[in-house]
């Protein structure tokens, strides 16, 4: 069953990325906040469902204990939603998925862990790909600066990189928080610690959704639910992927991890088919290097576990 859940996670998160982009409108001032609102509502519903149906002995103090991790993950996602108003999904998603490679680097630098030569080669491949994509942006191979202006174009292009940084920090913190021997989470066991952490994350996102609702009310911004179909579908797919991910990784994680890492390839294909995104041959070449590096690193690290 773990294989089916891993496959479902990959497809569902790929669909989520597609709907995120479809629901992102450059002219919609608070569009990224509306996406965050719907994701928070969907995750809150799922968290409440877990609390009502699963015996995880949840303690509300874990909301505070897990807040540093929740903040990194949620902030990174909000940055991503803003960037998608201006950046093609075909570019943003591969860059965002380098967070795993960045986390590996942080583990080496901060935790003193060692990695294989093949992992170093995969990371170098990712760096070359990212530098190539960035070079094409600044050299004018795209017309983004002409459309948006230099400042907005640079800010938008920074978003997927900032996502990768904060998501990687969240992953690094998770290494500490999900270690049962030293975690600050309370009332947890080996069997419940991941579910408790995920529930804390989802409840925090739910609280943010309520804050955003109040903010948009103050700004007299209407959400108009019937017109937000793509944002709602993205939120549902994101949350459903979270649910299947837990079961996928509870089986053969060494195989499930690289499978799920291929979500960026699914996203790339869906963006090309349904959004008709077209990049230059040079852009596709460097993005391919990023994808090869991500998948290579995922496979290498999984085999070494």
Keyphrases for this structure?
single chain, 305 residues, mainly alpha, 14 helices, globular
Describe this protein's structure.
- The chain has 305 residues and is mainly α.
- It has one domain (2-20, 30-304).
- Helices cover 76% and strands 0% of the residues.
- The chain is built from 14 helices and no strands.
- Helix 4 (67-83) crosses helix 10 (193-218) and helix 5 packs parallel to helix 9 (150-177).
- The longest helix has 28 residues, at 150-177.
- It is globular and about 55 Å long.
- It starts with a helix and ends with a helix.
- The mean pLDDT is 87.
Topology diagram in text:
Elements: H1 2-22, H2 31-53, H3 62-65, H4 67-83, H5 89-96, H6 99-111, H7 117-138, H8 144-148, H9 150-177, H10 193-218, H11 229-249, H12 253-261, H13 263-274, H14 281-304
Helix pairs in contact: 1-11, 1-12, 1-13, 2-4, 2-10, 2-11, 4-9, 4-10, 5-9, 5-13, 5-14, 6-9, 7-14, 12-14
Could you give the distance between the termini?
Answer: 21 Å
Structural class estimated from helices and strands: mainly alpha
Question: Which percent range describes the beta-strand content?
Answer: under 5%
Query: Helix share of residues?
Result: over 70%
**What would the average pLDDT be, to the nearest integer?**
87
Reported for the largest beta sheet, the result is: none
Q: Give the count of structural domains.
A: 1
Total count of helical runs of at least 4 residues: 14
- Give the uncertain stretches in residue-range form: none
Task: Put the structure in a nutshell.
This protein is mainly alpha-helical and 305 residues long.
């Amino acid at each position: 069953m773990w294989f089916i859940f891993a496959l479902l996670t990959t497809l569902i998160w790929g669909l989520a990325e597609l709907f995120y982009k479809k629901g992102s409108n450059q002219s919609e001032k608070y569009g990224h906040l509306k996406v965050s609102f719907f994701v928070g509502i969907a995750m809150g519903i799922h968290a409440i469902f877990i609390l009502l149906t699963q015996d995880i002995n949840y303690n509300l103090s874990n909301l505070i204990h897990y807040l540093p991790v929740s903040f990194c993950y949620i902030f990174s996602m909000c940055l991503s939603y803003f960037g998608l108003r201006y950046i093609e999904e075909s570019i943003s998603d591969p860059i965002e998925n380098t967070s795993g490679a960045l986390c590996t680097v942080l583990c080496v630098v901060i935790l003193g862990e060692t990695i294989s030569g093949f992992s170093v080669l995969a990371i170098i491949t990712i760096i070359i790909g990212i530098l190539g994509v960035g070079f094409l942006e600044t050299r004018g191979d795209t017309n983004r600066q002409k459309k948006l202006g230099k400042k907005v174009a640079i800010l938008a292009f920074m978003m997927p990189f900032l996502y990768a940084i904060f998501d990687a920090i969240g992953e690094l913190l998770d290494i500490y928080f999900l270690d049962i021997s030293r975690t600050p989470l309370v009332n947890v066991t080996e069997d419940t610690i991941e579910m408790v952490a995920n529930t804390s994350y989802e409840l925090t996102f739910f609280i943010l959704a309520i804050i955003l609702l109040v903010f948009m009310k103050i700004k007299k911004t209407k959400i108009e639910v019937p017109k937000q179909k793509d944002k709602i579908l993205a939120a549902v797919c994101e949350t459903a992927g979270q649910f299947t991910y837990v079961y996928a990784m509870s089986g053969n994680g060494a195989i499930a991890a690289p499978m799920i890492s291929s979500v960026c390839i699914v996203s790339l294909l869906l963006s090309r088919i349904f959004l008709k995104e077209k990049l230059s041959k040079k852009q596709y070449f460097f993005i391919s290097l990023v994808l090869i590096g991500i998948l290579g690193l995922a496979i290498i690290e999984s085999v070494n576990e």
